[in-house]
Amino acid sequence: MARRELHDRFFKQAKAEGYLARSAYKLLQIQELKRLMRPGDRVLDLGCAPGAWIQVALEVVGPKGRVVGVDLQEVRHAFDPRVHLVQGDAFEIGAEELTGPAGGLFQVVLSDMAPNTSGHGDDARSARLCWRVLELVPDILAPAGNLAMKVLEGADYPNLLKDTKGMFAQVKGYKPKASRDVSREMYIIAHGYVPGKTPRMVP
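The structure corresponding to this sequence follows.
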């Protein structure tokens, strides 16, 4: 099947299955292969609009789980009480604003944040978003917790991957089949957060 046809299928499938965006299939594929989330987990979703990843997370964490979603944009979808939405900037929001509504540290942090693209310096801005996530991790992620974050491959990618490996037991880059062929996006998948480690190269 041609890649373009594949993406058309994901778009149509999302509408048919009630997902808010076809990006849901990226997280579904990550979860199927990497098993980041478990029933009862507290999950943080950074860059959550329009809410497709929240939908997937809720399916996994079940009735006892909690999801906190953060985005600059307003999320218009009405979720059940397991979800707490924060409209704001990840660079300005404090840890207590995130962990408070969740009832404690998160077992999983997800980031699908992406910069406004201009064709110049996009990868550097994307990496900066990821370093912000790593900067937050010590205050929001439980020991042995897991992480998945999107980054545009570029000059900063090797250092970002190295920093993440310094904080987690297992780290790998992964590109879901639901990603476009022409896209440079990758997902850094990290298992087993080791407390006491901080990123070395936060710009």
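The radius of gyration is 16 Å.
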